[in-house]
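Researcher: Quick test of sequence recovery. C-alpha cells follow.
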C-alpha cells in the first residue's frame, strides 16, 4: 500500500505510514498567484492500493483532499482508503430551523462522488459527533466509523490511573462516557442542564465527586464554553482536581488560552486528529497520536 497525505496532515500522515510500514507516496503541490492549487501525483500508483490521510478542518483542506483522492483514482489506483481523522461540520448533521443546510450531508455527498477504483474504496472516519453521519455517504464508497476508545482509555489512565470519576459536559455524551467508565471500572458522572431566561445553566451533578479527581471527556473541544461550564459545576460539587480529555482538539483562536486562564484544569489532553492541536501542544495541552489506530484500521483490524 502507498500512503499519501494532504499538506495540513503531513505529520499524522507520515506517522500512519511509518506505523503501518507503508510505502511513501509523493505529490507535487504548489499554488498559483490567484490561490488555485496545483497537485501532481509523482508516485506510480497504477495497479496499487492507495491510502490518503487528510481531514477537513477548513474548506481549502476539504477540496485539497477531494482533488487528490480523485487524482489517485484517475492515475489508476487499484483501491483507495480515504482516512479522515477529523470530519468538519459534524455538528451540522441535521436541520434545526427551516432552510438550514445540513453540511455534514453535503460533505459526505462530495466525497461519495470520488470515482470508485476497481477494488473499491473506504472512508475511515474517527469519533464522529453523531452515529448517523456514515449513512450520508452514497454510492460505492464504504464509510467506516473508527473509534478512538483505546487511545482515549490510555490517556485517561495516564492522567489519573484508576482513582477518578469520568465525567461529561452534557447528556449528549452520556453513552460514550458510560462506556469508557465501564471499561475503566470507575464511576461515571453527568451534569444536568436547564434553560433559564434564554440561557443554559447546570442544575445538578449526578455522582459524588467531592475530593475526587474528575476527568471530563468530550468528543471535541471548540471554544471550550461547555467544558468550562461543566468544570465549574464539578468544582462547586467538591472536585479536588479536574482534567479534560477529547478526541478532537479544534481550539480556534484563543480557546486554549481561555481554558488555561479559567484555572479549572490541571491538564487538557487531545489526540492529533486535528492539526491545530499539534500547533498548540505545550505543558498544558498534551497530544496523543492516533497513528497506530489508523494504521490498524487501514489493515482492517478492529
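Model:
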Amino acid at each position: 500500500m502507498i500512503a499519501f497525505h494532504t499538506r495540513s496532515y503531513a505529520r499524522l500522515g507520515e506517522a500512519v505510514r511509518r506505523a503501518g510500514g507503508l510505502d511513501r507516496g509523493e505529490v507535487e503541490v504548489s499554488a498559483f498567484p490567484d490561490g488555485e492549487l496545483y497537485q501532481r501525483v509523482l508516485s506510480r500508483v497504477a495497479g496499487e492500493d492507495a491510502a490518503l490521510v487528510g481531514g477537513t478542518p477548513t474548506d481549502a483542506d476539504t477540496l485539497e483532499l477531494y482533488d487528490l483522492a480523485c487524482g489517485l483514482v484517475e492515475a489508476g489506483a487499484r483501491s483507495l482508503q480515504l482516512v479522515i481523522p477529523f470530519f468538519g461540520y459534524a455538528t451540522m448533521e441535521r436541520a434545526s430551523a427551516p432552510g438550514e443546510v445540513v453540511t455534514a450531508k453535503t460533505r459526505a455527498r462530495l466525497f461519495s462522488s470520488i470515482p470508485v477504483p476497481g477494488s473499491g474504496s473506504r472512508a475511515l472516519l474517527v469519533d464522529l459527533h453523531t452515529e448517523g453521519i456514515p449513512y450520508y455517504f452514497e454510492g460505492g464508497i464504504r464509510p467506516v466509523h473508527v473509534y478512538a476508545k483505546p487511545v482515549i482509555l490510555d490517556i485517561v489512565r495516564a492522567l489519573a490511573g484508576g482513582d477518578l470519576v469520568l465525567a461529561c459536559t452534557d447528556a449528549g455524551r452520556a453513552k460514550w462516557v458510560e462506556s469508557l467508565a465501564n471499561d475503566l471500572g470507575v464511576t461515571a458522572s453527568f451534569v444536568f442542564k436547564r434553560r433559564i431566561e434564554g440561557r443554559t445553566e447546570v442544575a445538578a451533578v449526578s455522582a459524588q465527586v467531592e475530593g475526587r479527581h474528575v476527568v471530563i471527556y468530550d468528543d471535541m473541544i471548540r471554544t471550550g464554553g461547555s467544558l468550562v461550564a461543566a468544570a465549574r459545576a464539578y468544582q462547586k460539587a467538591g472536585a479536588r482536581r479536574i482534567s479534560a480529555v477529547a478526541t478532537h482538539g479544534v481550539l480556534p483562536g484563543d480557546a486554549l488560552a481561555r481554558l488555561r486562564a479559567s484555572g479549572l484544569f490541571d491538564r487538557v489532553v487531545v489526540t492529533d486528529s486535528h492539526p491545530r492541536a499539534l500547533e498548540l501542544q505545550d505543558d498544558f495541552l498534551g497530544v496523543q497520536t492516533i497513528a497506530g489506530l489508523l494504521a490498524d484500521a487501514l489493515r482492517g483490524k478492529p
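The chain has two domains: 2-147, 149-288.
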